[in-house]
Amino acid sequence: MYILYGGDFTRAPLVQWVLEEGKIEYELRKIDILNGEHRTAEFLAINPAGLVPVLITPDGDALYEVAALMLYLADRHQLTDLAPSPTDPDRGPFLSAVFHVAGDIQSEMKRFHFPHRFSLRLADSAGVQDLAKTLILSRLDIMNMRLEKRGPYVLGSRFSLADFYLCFWVAYLDREGVCLQFPSIARLYDLVRSRPSAIPYLEETERMAAAYAEMMKKKPGGVIA
Ligand SMILES: N[C@@H](CCC(=O)N[C@@H](CS)C(=O)NCC(=O)O)C(=O)O
């Protein structure tokens, strides 16, 4: 059986959603990152980087990097409705979208949520957060143009985990603002959010995003050091 280390205010729900879509058995072990559980000796022995999520496979490997976990599970369990197989012509555009979200959107979300780590002075934090948001919006603008030309999903008429991945980060951002500004992303968000398996995850993510934004207001010096 798989073991997933995840928890609130993490991106682990992305992996949980794939596990549940694939009806794959797993045990969830919650790590409370607000209370620093990701930095305990016990967790660092599992992932020395001190980052969540981590997936322990039935073979005993400890895998990390959320995009890798989603792709690994989809490939390993042949969930071709979530990830086109390596010989499918859609595989290239699919990988391209997944890596774009991982490398260019998700990484800026880290700066958006942890601006204090990228600021030499506390006073610079708000500017770092604004800059991260501006960069994310410029990338969503391009995504929006692509969806406008060839939507409604990232792969045209075919849903894939790339859509859920993108929507997860939209849910963690200023969702309403993004949807107003980018109609094709709004349409995608509505479509993904209407999928029964996605509803609880996106709703929960919307709640987490609102709660995290409140915490950031109260602790401008950083919710997590
Ligand atoms: N590149 C990694 C980043 C993982 C990551 O940053 N996880 C966050 C939770 S979503 C975390 O563990 N944060 C704790 C921290 O940064 O101290 C991935 O995509 O899986």
UniProtKB/TrEMBL annotation:
In alphabetical order, the GO MF annotations are:
transferase activity
SUPFAM superfamilies named among the record's database cross-references: GST C-terminal domain-like, Thioredoxin-like
Domain GST N-terminal spans what residues?
Answer: 1-81
Keyword flag Transferase: yes
Q: Which domain of life is it from?
A: Bacteria
**Pfam assignment, any one:** GST_N_2
Check the record and name the InterPro entries matching this protein: Glutathione-S-Trfase_C-like, Glutathione-S-Trfase_C_sf, Glutathione_S-Trfase, Glutathione_S-Trfase_N, GST_C, Thioredoxin-like_sf
| Keywords tagged on the record | Transferase
Q: For the GST C-terminal domain, which residue ranges apply? A: 87-212
Does the record's keyword annotation contain Transferase? Answer: yes
Which PANTHER family is this protein grouped with? GLUTATHIONE S-TRANSFERASE GSTA (PTHR44051:SF8), GLUTATHIONE S-TRANSFERASE-RELATED (PTHR44051)
What is this protein's record name? Glutathione S-transferase family protein
Q: Which organism is it from?
A: Sinorhizobium terangae
